[in-house]
Specification:
The protein is α/β, with parallel strands linked by helices. The protein is 60% helix and 7% strand. The strands form two sheets. Strands 2-3-1-4-5-7 form a six-stranded mixed beta sheet, sandwiched between helices. A two-stranded antiparallel ribbon has the order 6-8. The longest helix has 50 residues. The protein is elongated and about 80 Å long.
Length: 571
Amino acid sequence: MDADSEDTRVALLGPPNVGKSVLFNALTGLDAGIANYPGTTVEYKRGTATFRGEEATLIDVPGTYSLSATNEAEQLAVDILDGGCDVVVCVLDAANLESSLHLLLQVLEHDVPTVVAINRVDLLEEGRRLRAEVLARELSVPVIPTVATIGKGFEQLVDAVAGTLRNPTVPGGDEATWDRAEELVEIAIVDESSGGSTPAGTLQLWGDRLVEPWPGLPVAVLVLVGTFAIVVGLGMGLRQYLLIPVFEGFVFPVIEGAVRSVTDPGLVRAVLIGEYGFLIKGIEWPFALVMPYVISFYIALSLLEDSGYLPRLAVLLDGLFARIGLTGSNVVPLLLGYGCAIPGITGSRAAETYKQRLSITLMICLAVPCVAQTGAFIALLAEATILLVIAVFFVSFLALAVAGVVLDRVLEGDRNPTVADVPPLLIPKAHITANKVWMRLKHYLFGGAVHMIYAIGVASLLYELGILELIGEHLRPLVVGWLLLPEEAATPLMLGIVRRELTVLPLLEMDLSTGQLFVGAVVGLFYVPCIAVFATVAEEFDIRIAGVVLVLTMGVSFLIGGVIAQTLALF
C-alpha cells in the first residue's frame, strides 16, 4: 500500500460473485476479470477513478466472505482496510443478503467511512422489495441499489462516494453477529406479494436442482462433454476453414516471395523461411494452430462462469475432492489452470489451507495442460483421430486423481469444509462474455504468443547452425531408445522449457505413427512447465518448491511416456 500513500484511496470490497469487477471496470476503464465464482481477484487491482471531480485510487479488494483472515485472500482484505483507506465501497449481494450484511458489519468495525452498494437487486424474488433508505438510516451509511451489468444505480453510487470523500463520517458499528445480520434483512426486505408464496422461476428451480446428485451429476457430465465439444469443434472450425486457408493461401506466399526477393540462399533465408522458419512457424503455430483453441476455450469457460454454474459444480465435486484432501471450491483454480497455469496457481491463494494450495499448484504443474498446449494437442492428434485427444485428457484426469491421493498422504495438514454462497443461475450476457474473452485473448496475444515467437526464432537459428542436431545426438538414448521417437524429436524437448506447447507443435512436421503421436503428446502433457510458471511457483512458495516441480515433471514425463512407448511396441 506504500505506493498509494499520497493518494486518496477508495477500496471496493465484497463477497465473490457479486459484480465488484464490473463496477471496478466501469469506474476506472481498466480490464479486470469479470467472474462469477470465488477466487477471481486474489491479488488486488488498482486504477484511477474520478468521483465528481474527486480523483482517487480505486482498489479492487479480493472477494471474501469474511474478515476473519483464515486465508491469504481474507488477510489481504484486512490489510488493505487497515492500510489507511479513505472510503470503503462495500458491494453486497441482494440474492444472498444475510451473509453479505454479516460481512458489512465486520467492515464497519474497522471505523472507515463506508458506502454500501447492494448489487443484483434484479434477482430478488418477485414480490420482494429492497428498502435501501430504511437500511441506510439503520446503519447510518449511504445505501445504493445497483445492477452493475446494465449500469443501474451507477451515477447514484458515484454521487454517494463523492459526498463521502468530501464529508467523511465514521458510522457507528454494530456487533458483527449473524443475529444482527438476520435482523437487518428483515428490516431491509419487504414482501409485497399478494398472499401465498410466489412460484419460483425456471432458472431458480434448476439452480436449486443442479446442486443435488440427481439431476446435478448427469447434467454435470453433459456440461463437461458440451464444453469439450465447444473447445474442439469451434477451434477446429476456426482453424481449418478460416485461419489455415488465409495464412497458407495469402499470407505465407507473400512472406516467402518477399524474403526470396531480398535474400540469397543461405543462413538468413533458412532462418526466416526454412524448416523452422521464424516468419512462417512464428506465425503459423501461435496464431493459426493454437489461437483458435484459445478463443473456443475461453468462450466455453466464460459461459460457465457467467451462468453461475461453476459454484454448483464445486458443490457436486466436494465429496469427490474430499478423497484427495481438497474441497469442491478448489475446482476453480484447477479449471483456471486449463487456461493458463499462472492464474490457476495464484488463484489457489483462496484455498483454506497451505496444504491445499501446494497440492493444487503441484497438480496444475504436473498434469493440467494450458489452453495453448491443449490447442497443440488437438492440432497434432485430432486429424489422426479424435480418440487420441480424448485419451490424452483421460491420462491427464487420471494423473490428477493419482497425484491428489499421493499428495494428500504425503503433505501434512487438515481439510476444512467448503463454505461458499451459490449465486443464482443466470443467462450469460453476451457483451460481458465477449469482453471477458477479448481481455483473455489479449493476454494470450501479448503474453503467450509473443514468448512462443521468441522461442521459435531462437530455435530456427539453433537448427540452422546445427546446434539442435548436436543436442539430439546426446539425447538419442532417451528419445530414440526409450521413447521410441525419431532423433529430431529431441528439438521439442529443448523448446518446451520456454513454452510447454512447443514440446508438441514441432511433432506436426514429423512423419509419426499413431502410437508415436500419442507418446509425444503424453510426454508434452507432463513435461516441465514454461519459465514463467517456474518464476510464479518460486514467488508464491520458494525456489525449493520450484525445484521439486522441475524434477517431478521431467521425471514423470519421461517415465510414463517411455512406459507407454515400450508397451505399445509389444503389440
